[in-house]
């Protein structure tokens, strides 16, 4: 008997759950885009977007998803034929490399596989080998949502400094911003990209690029940027329309205003990070217990290299695909597919899934997902160790 009636829960790593208050803030008639509420409200977004990234850098807002934010950053950093070094730790690192290559950038990829973070020592060696400083920027994901690896951005910066290389450090925080601790200025990040639909809890449609003074200066010679993608007018205006190169994404901006207030004023960023950390640890604890009695494993072994926004796991013999189907049909919970771990036509594709715990997520949601998964494993006779839920509840209890 299906128990899927009631409010469904989409536990995929983006789009994440949207707070009702964000949706309510968007439910309004079209605002005037020349003066009044919208124009005054948008002026408050720029300082708060800096606060959420812990930076004094500039920020540009695009009507775009994460792929658009990648291209926006590429366009402002590079000229055709410039060189980029990409540290790939999953499907999204590869994706950023592909977007730069398609735009005419010469891309070198160091691929660290799908289950480990980037090794700063290998980056340092690659930069030392670049004697004539051809590499304009190092591109890396903070959290790669496909593998759920978290890269150590401060260590990557330290490796660049140790090599004495002037390249920009550009970081994809699309999955991590508002979930995992990220400190743009302390960690020496020059360019950071994010999007609205993950930790920022707004529907997909806004892309963001933060850029330092060094990046601004370096970007003045980049010839890939066309008027729509140039970051300077988006960050500096001065006319209101210039922030958006045309009509503003009016309703998304009102939603973002509410989500930033929730994150920065009401909950506070340190608590937001601590909440994600605790919920992530509950998920890991459950999988570690289940894995002691079955072919079940977390994708990332080292807890320090695990995302707090999403967890990628392996459940052998196609168990992941069968479990996802059961959870959706029988319990109203939709889990994420495994992305980039195996090709969709490879039977191993059915061995991977991802549990999202990003954004507007609390203890009952995450414990609910875990309990539903354990029920599904029982129903489907997927071998698993005992005590997964007890381990997760112990983490939540603190
Ligand atoms: C979701 C995601 C993207 C892609 O974002 P879209 O909005 O789907 O284009 C890129 N990088 C990371 C790390 C992501 O999590």
UniProtKB/TrEMBL annotation:
Its cofactor is pyridoxal 5'-phosphate. The modification N6-(pyridoxal phosphate)lysine is found at residue 198. Keywords: Aminotransferase, Pyridoxal phosphate, Transferase. The keyword Iron does not apply. One of its GO terms (biological process) is glycine biosynthetic process, by transamination of glyoxylate. Pfam families: Aminotran_5. It comes from the Bacteria. The keyword Metal-binding does not apply. Transmembrane segments: none annotated. Substrate binds at residue 354. One of its GO terms (molecular function) is alanine-glyoxylate transaminase activity. Residues 63-338 form the Aminotransferase class V domain. InterPro entries: Aminotrans_V_dom, Aminotrans_V_PyrdxlP_BS, PyrdxlP-dep_Trfase, PyrdxlP-dep_Trfase_major, PyrdxlP-dep_Trfase_small, SP_NH2Trfase/AEP_transaminase. Belongs to the class-V pyridoxal-phosphate-dependent aminotransferase family. This is Aminotransferase. It comes from Phaeovulum veldkampii DSM 11550.
């Amino acid at each position: 008997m299906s128990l899927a009636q009631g409010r469904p829960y989409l536990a995929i790593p983006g789009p994440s759950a949207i707070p009702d208050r964000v949706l309510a803030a968007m439910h309004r008639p079209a605002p005037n885009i020349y003066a009044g509420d919208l124009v005054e409200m948008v002026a408050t977004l720029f300082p708060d977007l800096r606060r959420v990234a812990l930076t004094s850098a500039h920020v540009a807002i695009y009507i775009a998803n994460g792929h658009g934010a990648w291209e926006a950053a590429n366009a402002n950093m590079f000229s055709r034929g410039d060189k980029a070094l990409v540290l790939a730790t999953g499907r999204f690192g590869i994706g950023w490399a592909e977007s730069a290559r398609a735009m005419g950038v010469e891309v070198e990829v160091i691929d660290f596989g799908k289950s480990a973070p980037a090794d700063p020592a290998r980056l340092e060696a690659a930069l030392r080998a670049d004697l004539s400083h051809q590499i304009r920027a190092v591109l890396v994901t903070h959290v790669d949502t496909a593998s759920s690896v978290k890269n150590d951005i401060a260590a990557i910066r330290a490796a660049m400094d140790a090599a004495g290389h002037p390249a920009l450090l550009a970081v994809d925080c699309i999955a991590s911003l508002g979930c995992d601790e990220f400190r743009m200025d302390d960690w020496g990040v020059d360019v950071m990209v994010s999007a609205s639909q993950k930790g920022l809890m707004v529907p997909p449609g806004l892309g963001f690029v933060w850029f330092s003074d060094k990046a601004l200066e370096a970007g003045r010679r980049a010839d890939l940027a066309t008027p729509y993608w140039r970051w300077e007018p988006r960050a500096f205006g001065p006319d209101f329309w210039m922030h958006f190169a045309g009509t503003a994404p009016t309703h998304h901006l009102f939603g973002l205003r509410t989500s930033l207030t929730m994150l920065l004023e009401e909950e506070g960023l340190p608590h937001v990070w601590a909440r994600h950390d605790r919920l992530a640890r509950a998920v890991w604890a459950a999988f570690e217990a289940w894995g002691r009695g079955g072919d079940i494993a977390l994708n990332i072994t080292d807890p320090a290299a695990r995302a707090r926004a999403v967890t990628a796991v392996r459940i052998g013999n196609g168990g992941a695909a069968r479990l996802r189907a059961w959870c959706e049909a029988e319990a109203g919970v939709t889990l994420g597919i495994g992305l980039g771990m195996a090709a969709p036509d490879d039977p191993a594709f059915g061995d991977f899934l991802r549990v999202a715990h990003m954004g507007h997520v609390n203890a009952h949601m995450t414990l609910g997902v875990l309990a539903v998964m354990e029920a599904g494993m029982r129903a489907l006779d997927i071998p698993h160790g005992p005590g997964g839920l007890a381990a997760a509840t112990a983490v939540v209890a603190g």
